[in-house]
Structures are given as C-alpha cells and as structure tokens.
Amino acid sequence: MATVAPVVSDLVDFLNASPTAFHAVDEAKRRLKAAGFVQLSEREEWAGLEPGRKYYFTRNHSTIVAFAIGAKYVAGNGFHIIGAHTDSPCLKLKPVSKVTKGGYLEVGVQTYGGGLWYTWFDRDLTVAGRVIIREKRDGGVSYTHKLVRVQEPILRIPTLAIHLDRTISSEGLKVNNQNHLVPVLATSIKNEMQKIVGENGPKESSENKNMKHHPLLLQLIAKEANCEPDEICDFELQLCDTQPSAVAGAMKEFIFSGRLDNLCMSFCSLKALIDSASAEHSLDNESGVRMVALFDHEEVGSDSAQGAGSPAMLDALSRITGSFNSSNSKLLEKAIQRSFLVSADMAHALHPNYMDKHEENHQPKLHGGLVIKHNANQRYATNAVTAFIFREIAERHQLPIQDFVVRNDMACGSTIGPILASGVGIRTVDIGAPQLSMHSIREMCAVDDISHSYEHFKAYFEEFTEVDSKVKVDY
C-alpha cells in the first residue's frame, strides 16, 4: 500500500484547522509568518517594500493576499498570481437564531452558496466562526474579534422517519430549506431542568439582555471565546461537520473531507508560494512578483468588499508597483499586461455512476492531474495562449494535465477567473484539481492530484518569467 506523501498529510492538517474561511485565513497567516512573510496593513503606507522580501495582508480576516518580490524586480514588471477562494457552501446562523418549537431548542440558519443540503442531514454538527467581544481595558472599553470553534457535536438536523414519508423512495427527498434545515440544539425540558451553571454558565442578566439567541448556545460560544456571554456583541458563525478530514479508500488513494472546494487549491497554491520563496537565493533571479490571493465569497458571486469582485487585487498590484516608483502612473498598466493569473478552483471529475454527465472527449479523471477549464462563452477565462503556457510548464516536469468543457446541453458554472480577467485586465487560465461530491458536506479527491497540483504551482512560480519571455502574441 502506497505511503502518504508529506504534502497530502499537510493538506489534511490544513483542512482540519480550517472549518471556516476565517480559520483558513488564520492558518494561512500562521504558515506565512513561520516562513518569514511580514504582515502589512491596508490602513498603512507600504513605502518600505524591498526586492527579495516576502509580505502578506488580510482583508476582513476572510481574504488573504501573500506575495514574494523578486530580487530583480523593478516597478512595471509583472505579477505571477494564483487565485483561489476560502469559502465553501454551508449553513450560517441567522441574526436571530433562537427557535423554540415542539419542545425543542433549535437554531435558525440560512443557506450560503449552492450546497447539496440533503448531505447535511444526520451529521454530527457544531458551530465555528468569529465573535465580536467587548473588553474592558485601562479604564475603557475596546472591541476585539476572536475565532471560535466548539469541538463537540452539539447540533444535528435529523431526517424524517421513512414511515412518515412513504413517498421518499419513489419521489426522492424533497427538502424545504426554510422548514427542514433547522438543527436541534437541545430539548426544552432538559434545558430547563439541567441548565449548565458555573463560572462560564448562563446568567439571568445575559438571558435578559440577549433574546436573539438561546442562552445555552451563547454559553457554549462564550466558553470557547473565554469571555462572559453578555460580553458577546455579535458573531458570524456557521455549522460545520465534526468528522475530521482523512486519507481514505482501500488503497489510501483518496481524501475524504468537507471544503475541498476550494481549500484544496488554496492550500496547494499557498504551499507552492512559500516553498518557492523559502530556499536561500530562491528569489535572486526573479524579476517579477509571485503572489497568492485567496478570496472570500466566491460561492455567492464574489461581490463583496473582500471578494474577487472587489478592488482588493488591483489595490495590491497598484500599491506594490507604486511603492517602487510613485512618479510614473502608467507603470501599473504595463505591469498588468506582463502579469498572469492562474484561477484555481476544483474541477468535476468523471463520476462512474453518471458517465453521461460529461462530454465524451472531456472526462477528467482522479489521479489525472490538474484540469484546464474551457468555455467558449467565457464562463472560464482560459484561451489558447494561457492554456499553452500552463500546459508547457506541466510538460517540462512530466506532470499530467487534463481538459474540460461542459456539455452543450448543460449549464456551466464559473469561477473568479472571468471576474478578475475582466476587472483587472490580466491574462488568465482557469484550472482545478478533479474531485467528486462537489458542494457536499463530505467531498473527495485523489491524493496524487494534491502532489500534482503543488508541484505544478511551484513550477509555475519558479519558471513563468522564463516561459512567458518566449511567447509572442501582441507584437
């Protein structure tokens, strides 16, 4: 039986540390700091950037951009970017989540993105996200954001017994997202008879002050945040599965996990950037800027202050360029035309039980390497030039590569690729590792494709400048 590659074990650790976009960014920050990347603030000037140095910044703590500046970089040179996203379809708590009915305490949730919501039934669920906490300091009050994650399974969305839904076998499960996707937290009678009391337990004052959420839920969150329930001002929490990610299958060839779309590509691109810039002299001959941009809100269209539809990437390119030469306003336009974006988002692998869902000549396989996505109607931003450049890097390293187009009689999804290509004006190729069960609470991909993706991304960072110098198009 094959041994698990270190990059695969590292991915599993990343997935298990990242139940939400906030946690994914926090884990990315930890890894970047350990690799010598310096944190920047978008609220401050970036006047001190230096060639050969490495930096990162976050926006809303759910989007992160990291970059390594080549030692030979001058203003106007290109950016070599991999873009991915930190969010995944999930169930998020409503602003007023307190639901009591039928003798149960339930938690009101709203759907985020296009999830396969039936897969959330009968799973051992918990909550994670961020809370805003009021703290007293030096005679005053300040407000901080903290990440929380309740480790124990505290919620469940139970299915209805087949005896009470005799048509389910013939007509299938029909989920009403408003009525049926309400997780159970506790029974009312047990909550009343055995309220948790103690140092961090619910108090009458907190119950009276906050009627929007069950005091029991607030007590659990406050315990994780190391505060009192009435110190919680607000939160952004979501449901998540408590089952950890794992290398699985009879041959240990798969990864079973939630959020592979798109934390898998986020991890592979981040690790590739870190490793391509960490060895001594690794940036000595680089004339461009190597960058990874991991955005929030892709699953709902990217239209937010921290999504790919925001100015976040363009702002970064502008500020980096301007920090090296603020006198020439045209250098940014020059830099963009020398730049390249790999839009990395997971791809649809061929499903053995639904063979007819794939176009005959475009059937990506697990273990088959990264998939180049094509769409004549620009749902993907790939063209012949950008596909060739990405494929050429694969061929130099004997890495497998695949192609995908959706059937003409099926709708095509999209990615951050067209958004950034049209918004920034940057050459773009859309790619992704193949996976099954996309948008399920529990997805799967192949371990070989993790290694392929990481190696491909690392080679892209290290060799793009040289490959691109040989491609002649607009001359």
Question: What features would you describe in this structure?
Answer:
This protein has 475 residues and is α/β, with parallel strands linked by helices. The protein is built from 12 helices and 20 strands. The chain has helices spanning 6-16, 21-34, 168-171, 188-193, 204-209, 215-225, 260-276, 312-324, 331-337, 384-396, 416-424, 447-468, and strands spanning 38-39, 54-59, 63-69, 79-85, 90-101, 104-112, 125-137, 140-149, 184-187, 232-241, 246-248, 254-257, 289-295, 340-344, 347-348, 370-373, 401-404, 427-432, 434-436, 443-446. The strands form 4 sheets. It has a 9-stranded mixed beta sheet with strand order 1-2-3-13-4-14-18-16-17, with helices on both faces. A hairpin with a 2-residue loop joins β5 (90-101) and β6. InterPro entries: Peptidase_M18, Peptidase_M18_dom2. One of its GO terms (molecular function) is metallopeptidase activity.
